[in-house]
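Final report, closing paragraph on structural work. Over the funding period we assembled a curated collection of sequence-structure pairs, and we close with a single example.
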Amino acid sequence: MPRTTTTTALALGALVLSAVTLTGCSGFGDLAHDRVTSEASTRADLSAAPAWMPADAEEITSVSGTGGTASDTTPTTIVFTSADGVTADDCTTAPRQSAPTMDVEGAPNVYKAAAVLRCGPWSMTSKGDRWIAWTPNPGDGGS
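Its predicted structure, as stored:
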């Protein structure tokens, strides 16, 4: 009987370790890299969305650094899909001189953009209907 108990305990331990490894990778990765990742299906699912984010924004991923002391200095990257695109009146076009600090998988390559849309402390560009926005944006005339 002791052998069965030991085998069961080992199997249970391996199962728990596998479950944590498969389901908790992003949580552990976020903790190890001083970042917080959040996702939303649509803009309506967000507790607070930037004013410039289009109403049809979906497939939204936001990655923020945990080292900033204020919302305007915390590095944040948001990636989303929008057929309407960003059309806020208070946004202007500027030469791209900054890039996101926080990486998001599947984001458009900002280094291929010669210009960005600047909306206050945010810079953004798109490839098709997939958008990437980041702050701070030093050099682009924002923060």
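The first strand starts at residue 35 and ends at 42. The chain has one domain: 27-135. We thank the funder for supporting this effort.
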